[in-house]
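Hello, quick one for you while I still have it in my head. I'm working through a protein record and want to make sense of it properly. Would you mind checking whether the tokens look sensible for this chain? I owe you a coffee for this, so here goes:
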Amino acid sequence: MQDSNVLRLIASGNGRDCFEHPLDPARCIKVPHTARGRKESRVEARYLRLQSFFHNTRDTPYIAHYQGIDHTTHGPGWVYDRILDESSNEPSPTLADTLDDEEYGREPIVWDQAFSDFHDWLARTPLVVKDLTPSNLCAQRLQDGRIRLVVIDGIGPSAFLARWVPLSSYANRRNPVYAARRGMDGLHSLIAACAHYRERRAEQRRKRASTETSATVSPVYLLP
């Protein structure tokens, strides 16, 4: 395999690993490593296609859009937009990595507006966003200096029927519940949720480091 086709790991979840696309830095590839991850990938992609067909959600700037499937040495990978800051074209950080009291204090008006805009979108979108964990949201810096919160994972309802019948009314009922569950009912509660998430992530990494072996992990390559 050519080194130019090797996938560089961005983040790893319980069911999927997210890699930078080797041929397009504006996209990423989510490669499942469990049966649950494969099922979630199929369900999420199908839900986004249905939403695009019924509600024309392809134009919304508040989600990372699904772009299809590429094949890798570890199986199929689901391709999504990678969120980049508009002025630098550098990857936008997640809320988990950027939002704290100090960051908010530097630009309170910018963050207040970003939070308000996202809540307005969440209240009217037909998309169900069931997992608003801080790691599932990017803070994209726009050309004019504003920040846009963008969902990069956790889209789609848990209820089976709602996956196949994408009603706006269902999303409008469920999204406020999911938002409150993750501390998205206010900006300061979101800051606290981000801090809690970082503490929990650090603890998980410490536990993983104490139990991991030195086994070599084989690289993942994009297939032609």
Summary: Helices lie at 35-55, 95-98, 101-106, 108-124, 160-164, 168-181, 187-211. The chain has a mean pLDDT of 93. The longest helix spans residues 187-211.
